[in-house]
Structures are given as structure tokens and as C-alpha cells.
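Handover notes (outgoing to incoming on-call)

Open items:
1. PMS1 homolog 2, mismatch repair system component: sequence verified, structure written out, both below. Nothing else pending on this one.
2. Nothing else urgent.
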Amino acid sequence: MERAESSSTEPAKAIKPIDRKSVHQICSGQVVLSLSTAVKELVENSLDAGATNIDLKLKDYGVDLIEVSDNGCGVEEENFEGLTLKHHTSKIQEFADLTQVETFGFRGEALSSLCALSDVTISTCHALAKVGTRLVFDHNGKIIQKAPYPRPRGTTVSVQQLFSTLPVRHKEFQRNIKKLQSLIPFVQLPPSDSVCEEYGLSCSDALHNLFYKTMFAEMEIVGQFNLGFIITKLNEDLFIVDQHATDEKYNFEMLQQHTVLQGQRLIPVTERAKLISLPTSKNWTFGPQDIDELIFLLSDSPGVMCRPSRVKQMFASRACRKSVMIGTALNTSEMKKLITHMGEMDHPWNCPHGRPTMRHIANLGVISQN
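PMS1 homolog 2, mismatch repair system component C-alpha cells:
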């Protein structure tokens, strides 16, 4: 009781302003919330610059590096100083201009926030410039290095160590980064006419549809090559299929669909939960990090079937061991079964480890013409 009374009589701490550097970091953390936000802001800047080609590079899923390059108009030298300063923009000058905004960005906060949260380097070459320039910025958005840099017209923004100035956010970002990669969708498109011409592919409608799963049921089995690959034929197109990779992916998807993992009992303690033992599945053990990842996935995608990345690794390992191996001779019916399974998969194009399951070899019509 005496301790409680003494603590209640202590004078309240004085209210003081937070230093400007800390304010900038905290506010920037509300502008750039995640990897996807950072990429979105940079891509939108490229689009606003009139870019027709944008390249995105992520190193270690974005933990080490996010780099967006474009062929836009570039940045004029007189705009270098204000490029990454807070609330500096070429899009608007006053509030009334908001009614006529036709660009994605206009607040002048994105690059300033990225400087506050990471190490930013920008190389740019304006359409009227004779040579490009490489700029290195500090966390306040001020230029600390400036040097000539040969490059074509356009701009490249490199963001290293995102959230490094916010230790707690940075640690959480590193822990969850493999889950965040799913926030950026990638679509595999059929080859363009120029690609077909460069590699001697047919640009017929049949080949342009080669990425549709319905084709597998129509494929003919030509034979087996090197005891590891299945040669198939669809109309005049020849394909080579990795027998192990495709069987592995089929088994992986079947495990994903039909395996039921026994739930781990969690004992609620007020608003938290206590893990009383480590969940296991045969020789695989799951720890608190896997539980944290699952909770993140469930909160980020409510109503969607979610599994931690380690569960997928377990399924991939089991699928690999039970699949047809390289070096195994297959008869026609066995090869046909593997090809039929490809048409039944959700994602037949790559094995669980990312290796392609099939490739187009040649078009017999093009070969006969040559």
C-alpha cells in the first residue's frame, strides 16, 4: 500500500514535443505501410512519368532491395533538390488544383517517406540531358552524393533496407516478408509475336493458347527421352515435360487438398493464447514463428484457406519422395497418366520448388517450311 501511495503522488511527466526527425519517421511509417505500398508508390511514379516499360527487382523478397526502373521522361536537374523533400511535388501547387489532378500521385510524400524509412538512391536521365545522374539521399531527403551516371532516358529508384530506421517494424517486416510476396500478383502471358519470331515458335492461335490447361487432354505421347522427360505433341507443336517435376506438383496439390492436420489445442489467457506444446506432423515440428505466420495470414485473408510456409515445405518434401524419379522408364499409359494429371492441377506450370514442368520444343510446320 505504501508503494502504491508513493507512486500515485509522483509528478506527471512533462509534455514535450517529439524531435522533428522522429516525427518524420513515425509519419512516414503511416504512408509506406508495407512492401506492396512501397512498390505501388514507385510504379505509380513511373506511370506518371509516362513510362511504357517498367522493371521491378526484389532482392531477398524486398528485404535487401526494391528497385523500380522505367523509361519515362526522367527528372530535370533543377528538380533534384526537391525530388525527395516532404510535400514537394510537380503535380499540384495549391488545394484548388486537386479538382484537375490526372496523375496517381500528388501529395509529395512517397519518396520523402521512403528516404525516412530506408536508404534511397536514384539514377535518372531527362530527355534533354546529355548524361544521366546518380543521386544518394539521407533519411531527411537531402542529397549527400551526386555524380554523372551513364544510362538511357528514364529513372531508377533503389530502396535498400526498408523500415531499417524503425527497428520493431523492420523486425516484423523481415519475419513476415515471405508472406508479403503474395501481395504482388504476377501473371504469366503467352509469347508475343516478336518472341515467337526470335525463338522460331509458331504464332498460331493454337500456340498462343498453350498456357491453357485444357490442352493436356488433347496431347499425344511421342515417347520418353533420356529416362527423365516425356515428349508430347499437340497439333504441330512438340513439348518436353519433366516427369519428376510434373508428378511432384500433382502430388503436392493432392497433399494440399486432402491432408488434414490435427489442430493444436491453445489455452486462452485473457486476450492472448498460450501454446502448451509444439505441433508436429510425423517428423516435422512447428514452432511459435509458424503460429505467428498463420495468425498473420488469417488476419490478412479472412475466409481463405491459409497454411504457414513451413507446412507447404513439408508437403513439397513428401511430394518429392513419392513422385516418379528421373531415371525411371515409363510406358505409354504411365506417361499419359502424368500428362492427364497436369490438366487437373490448379497450377501445373512449375514444381513446388519453382522448376518448370514443361517447355515448348518446336513447331513442325515451321521446321518443314525451313
